[in-house]
Amino acid sequence: MTQRPPLAAARPDSPAAPEEGGKERGGGRGPGRRRADVSLRLPSLGPLGSARLGSARLGSAGAMGDATRLPRQLFLQGVAVAFLFAFASLYTQIPGLYGREGILPARRMLRPLGKGPWELLWESPTLLWLGPRLGLDTEQAMELLCLLGTLGSLGALLLKPLRHGLLYLLLWGLYLSLYQVGQVFLYFQWDSLLLETGFLAVLVAPLGLSGPGGRAGGRTGGKAPGGWPHEPLPFWLVRWLLFRLMFASGVVKLSSRCPTWWGLTALTYHYETQCLPTPAAWLAHQLPVWLHKLSVVATFVIEIALPPLFFAPTRRLRLAAFYAQVLLQVLIIITGNYSFFNLLTLVLTTSLLDEQHLAPWLGRTRRKAPPRSWLRSLLALLTLLVEVAVFGLLGYGTVSCFGLELDKEQRLVHSKTAFTFHEFSQWLRAVILPTVGLGVVALAWELLTALYRCGQVRGCLGKLWAMAQLSIFGAATVAMFIISLVPYTYLEPGANGRLWPGAHQMFRAVEHLQLANSYGLFRRMTGLGGRPEVVLEGSYDREHWTEIEFMFKPGNLSAAPPRGGPPPAPSGLADVVCRTWASQPQPVVHQLRLPPAAGPEGGRWWRRQWVEEFYPTVSLGDPVLDSLLNQFGLKDKTPPRLRASAAPLPQALRLVREQLSALGPLAVLWTLVCTAAAVRLLHVLLSRNPRPSRPPRRPEGSTGEKNGAAPRRDGVERPRAQPPQAPTGSRHARRKQ
């Protein structure tokens, strides 16, 4: 029998291309016999998977995992940057917040109370329990954890081999240890988001697993060219976390019944009442009211209407949602400082990207699209029509829900909320469970895609090893998804009550590990009557009083708000004082307002209005003040035990603290940022080596070749490979005759 011609030739530069000489790896059935090549080209593997199936050969692993390889690396680097900022900024504030004479000493959070070590570790999972074994007090143990976290995150950012699952597990464990004793200063949403994202990075980061018969990544191990089949699966959890974060942030603004969000006037107060405004916030505050209201409408669209597009079947819809989220986060970063919250949100948006979109950013050329058949052209046309319909539906819904009207005479856009709270509650009750179903379908598709990739791994042992990894990581992914449903459905109590009871049990078992959390920033707009603040003044003679200023807090009215930079942790003392006195019957505060649009008045960036005296004049040791501090738990009853240890580790920590304290917190943060940026820039410059140019192609016959012989380097001629000829007597030969 004659050999059938191949259905489609594989690309020479693809992993599925045959080896030189046209022979299959592993031999054939006989001389001159070849295994048939099959070209599978699908536009996409479905609406919810970011993987693509390219040209592949039967029996070999396809390139389906390549679509998320670069986004995964970008995500891991971004998580390392967030951990770097978190550990470094917290290290600079440990003495003032958690030290022996700090506001909330951390040592009072670590009291064994007669419990065993394992019981203590489970109830309060922190490595600080090991501090006494190392000869460290609680403050020094926290400094050690911060230094280790800073070095580990810096290494993961700069060195690709260090982006390992075990290192991210260490970073997550270090920050969880600090979170357990951080009290109110680490109870912000970005701290919970960092812990949840850090644990997802543990699942996303490679573990260097080798195949059953060879080293990690080797061909003998049975690994697919695009990575192990399970690797893109945990990365889907990052997209699901981004959806929960953004959708909840938009829903809570309306479910809280805040009049400023419902009246679309929240941004007229936001820029002057936020925690850490920037100079750009002053400029944004001067914008006209109609533009502020239109910005609130855009915020609702980006946070509520666009997140379902994260699971869209087409790339253009996902990329449109990606750029909308990036625009919102960048504008927030420009006008305010919210620590690493917005940076971490930008890191989560990498789950919406694929390698095809990132290739031009990295200076790589895109693959040329194969010639389209009539079926592919029809499919592309239908896809375009669906995308146009989706964008048209979004535009129509925005105009109808917010009553947008264009006023050509005044050159502005009128907007108002065109629905009631009852209608919104009914809509929310109707969409929560369908969004859960959307997540179930998306996860099921990812599992089926990973299972298909397992079938493409070479060899029986390779398939078994890939299936074993998929079983472990698939179970972890499904468990994380089920756990996350409990805090997500807090948005609608009825949906939360209809969840599977096992989901609630799983969530309660790991709730203290911060694996899944509920989110919703800016639920209500505060400071509507001005920016309330407490002003502390001190005096030596009770006649001349001097204001005590705090870092990143508006004190000097002539000083501009701090510009953008490495995100600091929230200002400690001012936050505690405000929390302490918020429950007083008549809080006595000052109010700050931004100056009018004409510019800073007399060089002043703020206008301060005195309300009344906050607290009568007191001195140290005042019994009334002591009783009040004891009432709110701000006075530590346990006297600190000062023990100067002569061990090498405590002395090294004290030396590092002395050296870094001389630089200042901002100098330390900027030094780390500039060092990381310089190393990355140097790496990019060194990696851009010019490719050797190919020699010009000579016309046939100009090289002195005779009778189709190709010259070799050793001077011995070899016959040139000829294209396969149809055997004599074949059907093709008869047709030519």
From TrEMBL:
Lipase maturation factor 1/2 N-terminal domain residues: 187-359
Keywords: Endoplasmic reticulum, Glycoprotein, Membrane, Transmembrane, Transmembrane helix
GO annotation, biological process: protein maturation
Transmembrane stretches, start-end: 74-94, 141-159, 166-190, 294-314, 326-353, 374-396, 431-452, 464-490, 667-686
Places the protein is found: Endoplasmic reticulum membrane
Keyword Metal-binding: no
Sequence segments annotated as region (Disordered): 1-36, 688-737
Classification via InterPro entries: LMF (IPR009613), LMF1/2_C (IPR057433), LMF1/2_N (IPR057434)
Mode of membrane association: Multi-pass membrane protein
UniProt feature, compositional bias: Basic and acidic residues: 711-720
Gene Ontology CC terms: endoplasmic reticulum membrane
Domain Lipase maturation factor 1/2 C-terminal as annotated: residue spans: 515-563
PANTHER family assigned to the protein according to its UniProt record, in alphabetical order: LIPASE MATURATION FACTOR, LIPASE MATURATION FACTOR 2
Sequence similarity: Belongs to the lipase maturation factor family.
Function (record text): Involved in the maturation of specific proteins in the endoplasmic reticulum.
Protein name: Lipase maturation factor
Organism: Ornithorhynchus anatinus
Gene designation per UniProt: LMF2
